[in-house]
Write a structure and sequence with these properties.
alpha+beta, Rhopdopsin 7-helix transmembrane proteins, 2 domains, 11 helices, disordered N terminus, disordered C terminus
Length: 373
């Protein structure tokens, strides 16, 4: 039986509250072993196929391709690390691979969560512009901003991971236990002095900011998609939006809610053994479920092809032409933007705007057609 002893740190010097709570979660060994094994069996071929699919598809625009490729790379790297976690939990949370392996696998485990959230947020913003502001999207999608944003996400992740890996051992032996824990069961001193800044940053930039963005753009985007008259295009767009929202609500949200209460527990704000026990058990469950996004993400890549009847053939490089009436823009100035992926030409004498763009996910085509009507 695994017992984790926690002595909470009081937040005020005058408080004499001091207690020891034995937190038991015997179900976690089988739960983690089965869950991670399923993730490995389903996730490895799914993400390998996704990488092959994305590397050979030319239909998606530059920005979407960058985000999806990076998300697939993050998921594949995480899936490859799961055998270590499977063995660790299967033998009763006893780490036998050494401290260096614990530092690498442990930090990459949590880095996967927040890198995935970062790229999910980028995809949501990119879809929002494509659906709600198609003209702006067509001007920006061939620029360098997707690459800059992607590099920024990776640099932020590296800046957080490296100090954690190089900052000292991440294995420890909890009190009243002979097993060696990896990246968990830290003492109160170690948690407050070493891990507190990371947890604060994770809650703010990995939870509050991304979910605020998603919560704002999703209702607007869903409303705009519902106005698309072409039923096939609307079906594809709604499936993509629904899957992104489902992954966010089922994988990321429960984990961060329980992690917030776990944070309050480690800070000594919550001081009740019953609450400790429930928070600990819920956090073990959500810690496994948050990683399940690595198996669900490949479905996101294949939705358009599945909706078109499993047509995985490589598309041609032809460009489609759409025409919008925007007399005000044409009267103000003549606009001509040329790139390999899109071109925008304003014809003053006709009062029209001609958009030539390679359609992505069929959403841009639907948005532009609805604007014509």
């Amino acid at each position: 039986m695994a017992v984790w002893v926690f002595s909470p740190v009081t937040t005020t010097p005058s408080t004499n509250f001091s207690t020891e709570c034995s937190l038991q979660a015997d179900f976690q060994y089988g739960f983690f072993t089965v869950t991670y094994s399923l993730m490995f069996i389903l996730g490895l071929p799914g993400n390998a196929l996704a990488l092959y699919f994305l590397s050979h598809r030319s239909q998606r625009t530059k920005s979407a391709h960058i985000y999806f490729m990076n998300l697939a790379v993050v998921d594949t790297a995480f899936i490859c690390l799961l055998p270590f976690r499977i063995y660790y939990h299967n033998i009763g949370n006893d780490w036998v691979f050494g401290d260096v392996a614990c530092r690498i696998t442990g930090t990459l485990y949590y880095a996967n969560i927040y890198l995935s959230i970062g790229f999910f947020t980028c995809i949501c913003l990119e879809r929002y512009l494509a659906v709600v502001h198609p003209l702006t999207y067509l001007r920006l999608k061939s620029s360098r901003y997707p690459l800059v944003l992607t590099i920024g996400i990776w640099m932020t992740g590296i800046a957080i991971v490296l100090p954690l890996i190089l900052g000292g051992p991440l294995v420890n032996v909890p009190e009243n236990s002979s097993s060696t824990s990896c990246f968990e069961d830290f003492s109160s001193t170690s948690w407050q002095h070493r891990l507190l800044p990371y947890n604060v940053c994770a809650l703010i930039f990995g939870f509050v900011v991304p979910f605020t963005i998603i919560g704002v753009v999703f209702p607007v985007m869903a409303r705009r998609v519902c106005q698309i008259r072409t039923s096939t295009h609307r079906k594809v767009a709604l499936r993509i939006i629904s899957l992104i929202l489902a992954i966010s609500l089922l994988c990321f949200l429960p984990y961060h809610i329980t992690h917030f209460f776990y944070f309050l527990m480690r800070m000594g704000i919550i001081q009740h053994c019953t609450a400790f026990s429930h928070i600990y058990k819920l956090r073990r469950i959500t810690l496994a479920l948050v990683s399940f996004n690595s198996c669900l993400n490949p479905v996101l890549y294949f939705i358009p092809s599945i909706s078109r009847g499993f047509n995985f053939s490589l598309p041609s490089h032809t460009k489609q032409v759409y025409t919008l009436c925007d007399a005000k823009l044409c009267r103000e100035k003549g606009l001509s933007v040329t790139s390999p992926l899109s071109s925008l030409q304003c014809q003053q004498e006709m009062g029209m705007v001609t958009l030539r763009a390679q359609a992505e996910w069929r959403i841009e085509e639907s948005s532009l057609k609805s604007l014509q009507s």
